[in-house]
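The records we work with from here on pair a chain with its fold. Each token is a code from a learned vocabulary of local backbone shapes. A record is reproduced here so that you can trace the correspondence yourselves:

_____
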Amino acid sequence: MATTFTFKVLIFYSGILLLLVSSVVAFIHRCRMAAKKGEMFFYLRFEETYDDKGRLDLVPIDTDVEGTEDYERVYEAYGFCFGMFFLFTLFTMVSLAWSENAGYPLPTFIPFSLMLATGLWIAPIISLLILEANENDLLRIFILTTFGSFGCVFTGVTLAESSYMAILGLLLPLLFLPLLVYHLQSLLFWGIAIGTPWNVKPKVRKIMAYYGMFWFSSLLVYQGSLVTGIASADESNNTWTNAIEVAMVLFITTVELIFRFLEAFGNA
């Protein structure tokens, strides 16, 4: 039974990862087509530039001059997509908790569709961050990182009964302290609790980004090790709805890992 539940979780989790990767690749491809034709895409215009190796490198056109056509267009796109991402995350969580509060479950395709929509709204943000750096290198690393996330979860599932996972569960809260202090200092001194602290040196941001990649990768491994025990503890947990909920938690952790990767290798 636990194996069946694990299979359900991995199916949903791999599905949303494939959707995310394909959406980002399609978004960047569509941006290149729009730049070549001189058209707008996603209410943005793009400039064709070339990197040191002579490869095409798109740059979203944005300006700080108020009143112009491209005034803060990229920031508006980020804000809109982030808002929709959080909104659909909320909708997904409400649909997953529907049966406990309303007394009857929703059809499985509703929370699953909402989870996929959540992945679709984070894709433009990741795509634009990649474009603002250099999509030729970052896109390849992004794909490897995303599929590597699935490898982390699968490793946790494989080592679920080992003592390594128990040790990892004890170490993760302690290893989180540097990240907590790093973000908390921004809140204490600047009143900013969301996003990456900007009041630190670029070298420090790079180091903490690499550390964040390590911590969230370890968290994915540990979360993967907990999947098999959910259905084993109570057979009533072995439902498609619970599998979607677990896959959604894994996906949110994966998004955090991807943002750390973008900060380490790009301009996030």
Notes: The radius of gyration is 20 Å. The chain has one domain: 2-265.
